[in-house]
Structures are given as structure tokens and as C-alpha cells.
Amino acid sequence: MSLIVQKFGGSSVRDAQRIRNVAGIIAETYLQGNDVIVVLSAQGDTTDDLIAKAQEINPNASKREMDMLLSTGEQISVALCAMALESMGLPCVSLAAWQVGIQSTNVHSDARIKRIDPERVQMELDQHRIILVTGFQGVDRNGDVTTLGRGGSDTSAVALAAAFRADLCQIFTDVDGVYTTDPRIVPEARKLDEITYDEMLELASQGAQVLHNRSVELAKKFRVNLEVVSSLERKPGTKIKEVTKVEKTNIAGVAKDTSIARVALIGLQHNPGVAFQVFDLLSKHNINVDVILQSIGREATKDITFTVHKKDLVEAEEILNEHKAALMFDHIEADESIGKVSIVGVGLMSNCGVAAKMFEALYEAGINIQMINTSEIRVSVLLDEEDVNRAVKAIHAKFFDEI
Ligand code: ADP
Ligand code: ASP
Ligand code: MG
């Protein structure tokens, strides 16, 4: 007998028919003699709809109350799916994160799972019940509900798989695997049979929302046997592994991210410690910073440009302006109409032609690059937001049409 964690995303549980379909997949796995822990997302666009409801009442609602609201979506899904399994005569129990004991940090809207209490889940497993757990949420040390960031149900599933040493963690979604880029933008994108944890982590971190980036981080750390599969068609998906057999002459994929904004601090003093002060301040407010560029300005000043998530832009500007006197900058320039396109592949930086090929594709498409950033297995470019989809298509064609 194996323990299998199965996670179903919003589109997979969007209505009664889809919930019955999901119950069918779970029942089949259970009746084959496996223990099953199921993690569900909120139905369809429920999370977006709840955010819109909050906006109507108070656009500046506290993150704690937002978490209280958003966590209800997942609770509806697990209860409905448990009812579908009950109607099939299968033993099951739905549990919210606080009932399981998914302990998280207290950073509302972006909490991290610290540990999962084993008792309740183990007790239910001992009774051979199918356990349905709300994705996307945790409970902090005060007993308050937290959420793990958009797309966080994948992370709930992998964390449960790691905590209970599951034999397999399956992420069921509306695509049948991980593709070389988002198939909604490039219909010619190819499905990958397998991809390394490192490549998947970079793709997810650079905007490929098929997996939440922290789910991949956890899967790598705890060696979780992870796969992405379709909830609508029975066919093999994509396996995420430490090493893959696929030849490495090409990149693994292209990702895009339009959720970022650019902040430029103009006219900073050219003294030691300035960068430290700026980024220490932002990190103390839990604002993540991505691509950073420092350039020499006029008259012994410097400019520091970086990107943040769009949702953090106003707060970042406020914090920096509050400390304007101490930081001694001239002014802030913010730009929300930017996006980032990245290529990812193991061995990419040891092959000098790869970055040039990406830039050539952009040049041929007449697209201007604003900033460039690299890691060992990634090259990212910042562009005008309106150029992003065109850039993805051009770069994808350059790397995959010739093969
Ligand atoms: P779920 O609701 O099941 O969590 P998501 O919408 O979060 O599903 O993720 C699935 C979507 O991710 C797909 O519909 C697809 O448009 C998008 N996507 C982006 N990049 C990729 C990629 N490289 N491979 C597959 N899907 C991708
Ligand atoms: N329901 C949450 C969201 O829409 C979490 C998830 O789907 O993974 O972001
Ligand atoms: Mg998702």
C-alpha cells in the first residue's frame, strides 16, 4: 500500500460536475488500496471574487482579515468534495489547516509552513479514511488563519507529502504537464516528460504558474516524488526529479512574469552601506526584491533600480519616502508597465551562445531590453509589459522551432 497526495486546482473543482470527476479520481486511487491525502484549491475564480468583494468594502483591508476571508474558498471545496465521496460510500473527512495543524509563520498573505502536526492526519490514516485538506492556508502561533500566497495550494500538497513521507505527490491541473512555455501563449509549446527540480524552481519563480515556486523548493529539499498531471484526461504528465535523462543541448523552457513593477531610487549618495540600508528596510517589511541594478549617476551620486511585486509597490514607495532623509536620495521613479521574460536550462551559463540567441530573438522582433539578470541556469530580461507575449513567442520559436 502506498500513500499518495493528490492536489486539485481551482479549474479542476470549479463546479459540481468537476467535483464529481475529482471524486472519481480519488476513489479510483483509494480503491486500488492506497492511502490518499487530497489537497484542494478554491473553486474556479472564487479567490479573485472574494478579493473583489473585499475591495467593495475596504480597499485597504488588513492582511489578517483578507486571510480570514480568502481561506473560506478552500473550505467550501473540501466539504463539497467530501460530500461527493460520501455519496459514493467512501470513508472520508474534510479538514481545515487549523484542524490538521499546518503551522505557519504569521506573515499574513505570504506565510510559510513551519511544520505539520502529525497526530490528526495519522489518526485518520489509521482509520483508512480519505483525508481532504484545505490548500493555501496555515495557522500561526496565535491560532489565526494565514494564507501562503497566490497559488499556494501546491505548497500545501508538497508539504503534506514531505511530512507524511508520501510515495507520490500528484498535482492535477488544467494542462497535462509542464510545457516548454505557457501553452496558452504559445500553442506550439511542447510537453516535457521530465524536468529537474532546479529548472522547475527557476521556471516557477519566474512566473510559470503551473507550480507554486515554494512547492518545488520543498519538493527538492525533501526529495518528494512530484508530478504534474491533467485532471481531465488520463495520460502521463511531467515528472519533476533531481536529474533527468533528457539531453541538455537546449533550454528547458521560457517563462514570463507581468506581476512586477520597477522602482528606481535616483541620486543616492555614493557611500558604503547605502544598498544595505535600502534593502534591509524593505526586507524588514517583508517586501521581496528581485532584479537589482546599480548605476553611477551624476556628481558622485548613484541610482539603484530594482523590481518588486506589483502588490508591494505602494508600500515600498511609502517606506522609502518615510526614510528619505536618512537614505538621502533625490527622488523615486516607479514603473508598473514592465514585465520579465526568462529562459531556463541546466548548463545554460556554460554555453555562451545561449544568451546571445535569446537577445538575437528579441532584436529580430524589434524589442528593447531594459535590464538583464542571470543565474547559473537562467537569463532574464526586463521589457515593456506590452512586449512580453511577443517576446515569449519569438524566444520560444528561436529555441524550439529549429529542433
Ligand atoms: P491550478 O488552478 O490547477 O492550480 P494554475 O492556473 O495555477 O492551475 O496553473 C496552470 C496554468 O499554468 C496552465 O493553465 C497554463 O496556462 C499555465 N502555465 C504557465 N506556464 C506553464 C508551463 N510552462 N507549462 C504548463 N502550464 C503553464
Ligand atoms: N485559491 C488560491 C489562489 O487562487 C490558492 C491556489 O489556487 O493554489 O491563489
Ligand atoms: Mg495553481
Textual characterization of the structure:
The protein has 13 helices and 20 strands. The strands form 5 sheets. Strands 3-6-2-1-9-11-12-10 form an 8-stranded mixed beta sheet, with helices on both faces. With 403 residues, the protein is of the alpha/beta class. Helix 2 runs antiparallel to helix 3. The radius of gyration is 22 Å and the shape is globular. The relative contact order is 0.10. The model has no long low-confidence stretch (mean pLDDT 95). It has a domain of 172 residues: 3-Layer(aba) Sandwich (Carbamate kinase). Adenosine-5'-diphosphate binds next to loops.
In CATH, what is the class of the domain at 3-174? Alpha Beta
CATH superfamily (homologous) name of the domain at 3-174: Acetylglutamate kinase-like
The CATH architecture designation of the domain at 3-174 is 3-Layer(aba) Sandwich
Q: Indicate the low-confidence ranges by residue numbers.
A: none
